Every structure is written in structure tokens, then in C-alpha cells.
Please model this.
Amino acid sequence: MTDSRDNKQAIISGALELFSKKGFDGTSTAEICERAGVTKPTMYHYFGSKEGLLDDILLIHYKSFLDNLSMAATLPEDIPLTFFRLAKVYFDNALRDEPFFRFRAGLTLRNGEDTAYISSKKYIEQEGKIITDFFYTASQHIGNIRGKETLCTISFIGTINATISAYLQTGDEALVSDDTIYRLRQQFLYGIYS
Amino acid sequence: MTDSRDNKQAIISGALELFSKKGFDGTSTAEICERAGVTKPTMYHYFGSKEGLLDDILLIHYKSFLDNLSMAATLPEDIPLTFFRLAKVYFDNALRDEPFFRFRAGLTLRNGEDTAYISSKKYIEQEGKIITDFFYTASQHIGNIRGKETLCTISFIGTINATISAYLQTGDEALVSDDTIYRLRQQFLYGIYS
DNA sequence: ACATTTGTATACCGTTCGGTATAATATGCA
DNA sequence: TGCATATTATACCGAACGGTATACAAATGT
Model:
């Protein structure tokens, strides 16, 4: 018997790549299985349903991402440091796991009834909460963002994602460098809403 | 007989709203017809296929959007003015036609094999060309963005869309005000890459 | 050695999908 | 009025979808 974890992992990573390119509804279970080199009963043996597979994918990838975000925000009073760390988690995660970034980013601007969005909603909200909490802490020391914590959050995530997307399209590594983070930090904390 | 344009328009606007919420692949033709109050043969009489309907929707909405963008860029040498006008087209269009914005924005970060993305690709490229052309003109007068025209384009579109999305979620009208455009302009032309 | 668990393959099911054949109905024009 | 042209409704099609019953093969624990 081949190692079961190989097949399971092949299904997960292959499916995520397909979802990120063609969307959840645009990808068939047959396609997922063919790409992973398994048959449908094998996939249903592991995940129970197409949505179960999606849930597993989201759980695994979001857990690592959100854990890293939370760890980056353990010293929220050190505002410049925390901003830097948070942005770095976004960059690192996207470079290490491009399909997951594409999948995530494609959902961020779509707040509707898309199957994949509904399943991702709770994680997107957790992500938002971590960033919002940080901006609330920051606003206690930096007056000009007070009252704008929510919009700081949305703009922060949107701008970071746009920057990563720009890197993935152009290959310009300067985009995901520390310098970029310094500039974004300057804008968000001291410039953008003054 | 009811006015045919009513039905045709009802199908178009209803379908766009469904597509923006549930995605193209996640919306069934039966759903589209039910919402528009017509039967499937009626829809197929007008549009030939589900993709034909999508193409018509894209043609109508993108034409207006791209025309406005082109008109905003008729004086590219006046860089501050053109930047302002371009951003304003994005804001105005999104406020006037929210479903189309959501649909567009949901595709921007997803460069893959999604059905809706493939059909939209040519328009997205036209949009990109208009903005890129502007930044090339601007870079002839503003040295610090030279060589970064493509990434300026992607970041500009991404940041604008993130800002609009923030407005749609928070309802904070200050986000889509002229002041926001002034700040973005300052950042993009004189601050962000210096 | 053998029962049990785990994983895989063949073949298939019911449903929903996009799409259509047919015919009835409403309108514009003669 | 009656003909021609659009437009709509009923009813249906083949294909693809998500999902499964069954049985068999490989590993594991005793």
C-alpha cells in the first residue's frame, strides 16, 4: 500500500491549486482526483465531500497563517515593530504558499454567497480581528488614526494583497522587501489619514 | 406583450448581481431566469448561451467604464489632473454600479482559468493599458517612478479597489472623497517609491 | 496465520446542469 | 382581417455533476 499521507497531501495541494485558478465551483471532483492520481472513492474516503475537502484545506492553511499573524501581534504596544511583523507574515506566507494566497486574495474583495467565501468567512473575520485589534492599540498612541481602525484594517489588507499581487505578476522582488514595509508603515501610521 | 427591453435588462442586471455575489460558475441559468421573471428559452433567445450573457454584460459595463477611463486620460501631460480624473472614474463607477465593481474587483487578484476571468481578460488588459500608459507619461516628468510603471499600475488599481471596498463595507463616505484621491496622488507620484 | 483496519478500484446512482424542440401567443403591418 | 415576425411557455434532452455501494488489496496487530 502506498503511503496514505502522500495521496491525502496530493489531493489537498492539487485541489488548492485548482481552486485558486478556476474557483471552487469551477473545479470538478473528477478533476481533483485525476490531478492527484487517485479515484473518487479515495478522495471521499478522506474528506467525505467536496466541501469537506475545502474545509480541510482552509483549516490547514489558515491555521498556520493566523497563528503567525497572532504571534506577530504579541507586542502590540510596540507599534512600529508589530506593523512590520504583521506585514512580513503576509509577504512570507504568500511567497511560501502562492496558491493559498491567490485563493485568499480572490475572496477578499468578494463579500457574497460564493461557496468558497462562505466557508472562508470565519477565517477572514479572524484575520480582520487581529489586524483591527492592532490598529485599536495603535490608535491609543497615534491620534490621527483614531476612529478609523476598521478602514485602516481593510486598506491595510487590501494594499498588502495588491502589493503581493504586483510582485507575483512582475517578479519585482523589491516589492516584497523590508523597504516596502517601511514605506507602508510610514503611510499607514503617520501619513495616510493626516 | 411586455416590452422586450424590460426583460432583457432585467436578465442582465439580475445576472450581474448574482454573478457578483455567487460567482459565474456558482450561478445557474435557472436561477438567473427565475430572478428576472422569464423562462430559460427567453434568456437563450436573447443571449444564446450562459457565456453569451456574460459577454453581453461585460461588453455593456466595461465599455462605459473604459470609455470614461480613456476620457480621463486625454491630457496625460497634466499629471496631477489626470491622476485625479482616473481615480474619480473608479470611484464614480463603483458608486453608480456596485454589482459591477464587486464582480470586477473579485477577478482582479485572480489570474487563472476561471470562466469569468477568461472572458474578462481582454477588458482587464485594456484597463491596465490605460493606467500603464498614464504612468509612462508621468514617469517622463517624475523621475522616481521611472522603470516602475507596471507596478505603479497594479498597486494603483489594487489600492483604489481596496479603498472602494473599504467604503462599501464601512459606509464611510470620506473614503471615496476628493481628499482621499489627493492623498493617494501624493503617495503615488511623489512618495511611495522614493 | 489470521482477523481487522485502512486504502484503492470498478462501476454505478440520482440530481442538476446548460441547452433546446415544439408550439402557443402577442404584436406590427398589409 | 390576416399574414409575418418576435417573443414566451411547456416540456424535455444528453452530459456532467457530486457522491456511493461493493468488493478487493495491502498493511498491521495478535
User: Anything to note?
Assistant: Residues 18 and 31 of chain B are 9 Å apart (CA to CA). Chain B touches chain A through 41 residues (CB under 8 Å).
